[in-house]
Amino acid sequence: MATKLVARSEDFNEWFNTVVLTADMADYGPVRGTMIIKPYGWALWENMQAALDQRFKATGHLNAGFPMFLPYSFLEREAKHVAGFSPELALVTHVGGEKSALERFAGADRTFTIEAMMGDGRALQSGTSHNLGQNFAKAFNIEFVDQNNEMQHCWTTSWGLSSRFIGAIIMVHGDDNGLIMPPRLAPYQTVIVPIYKNDDEKSKVLAAVERINKALIAAGVCTKVDLRDHLTPGFKFNDWELRGVPVRMEIGPRDVDQNVVVLARRDLPGKPGKQVVSQDELVPTLQTLLETIQAALLARATKFRDDNMHEAKNYAEFKEMVAKGFVRAWWAGSDADEQQVKAETKASHRCYPLEQPGGEGICFYTGQPATQMAIFARAY
């Protein structure tokens, strides 16, 4: 049974939770605070991992696997680490871009972050890189022999991206009708919906569908043929719209006779997103369309980010602006000031942009001279 989605502008959190469940992305786990990533969600995550892994390996990095559990004695080797991690650790006692100092990874010298703007203007930390210096190397005696044949402690880093990015994809690109998948990451780039009324039409349509599907797969397009006979075409259209497949392909008996198909863009609902395409030109047309959609989603998200990036000169402006998106402002406050701003506005210090305007300004909160601009936002 179809589920009615609440408008994102009405209740963004409710919209998100309903989309995740009804699009069959994930479900609640049996243990409180855990989740089950279902096949459709896992396929998206696999595509994201593959894209990132390719970039990692291009820089010469290699993958390794480590156990999820480690002795508590490891954490006791440096008190600074224990204090920083204690709120985030699950202790098992029975076995069968740059952040501010307050936001920095425990034990790191410096932390860099990518802060992504979600569809409601809030921030989501979407990738971090930690310069750990020699802190962990000294705690765990990780050493190497340098060019002078002397033992040195390693300088280490920690960086990556987690499955929370599945949520980011949903919150950035989705609309009131559900998900919108970027073609390069979508589990299915195209869904083919056959339309027929009787067995004769079914045979004719499915023969064309099989031929088209093989041609698309051979061209590297990830497809899904919806053969669910117990559902109407209209239900299937709505179902795949909710799941965010970039392009829906419709083909009925008349389309077969005319050697055409109908393509519908998920990012452009209704008639403006529909086009009739010759089957002979389908493969190159669809490949171009997928790249067009990819570029359109990026442009739309970029515009939304820029339209919701504000610059505050004082605290009054800050409080008004931070309810609508990101705020960029001069900052010279202390850790205590940072905590007070968060307590009063629910907005946290997200990062210091690497690109700074230079010169000096006036801190929006303390009124003191400041040499850096910071970005504040309410965050997930």
Q: How many β-strand runs?
A: 18
Report strand %: 15-25%
Helical content band: 25-40%
Cα distance, first to last residue? Answer: 30 Å
Q: Whole-number average pLDDT?
A: 90
The name of the CATH architecture of the largest domain is 2-Layer Sandwich
Total domain modules: 3
How much is the radius of gyration in Å? 25 Å
Q: Would you state the CATH class of the largest domain?
A: Alpha Beta
Task: Characterize the overall form.
Answer: globular
Helices and strands, in N-to-C order? HEEHHHEEHEEEHEHEHEHEEHEHEHEEEE
CATH topology of the largest domain: the name is BirA Bifunctional Protein, domain 2
| SS field, number of helical segments | 12
The CATH superfamily of the largest domain is Bira Bifunctional Protein, Domain 2
Flag low-confidence runs.
none
Main sheet properties? 5 strands, mixed
Strand order of the largest sheet: 9-8-10-11-12
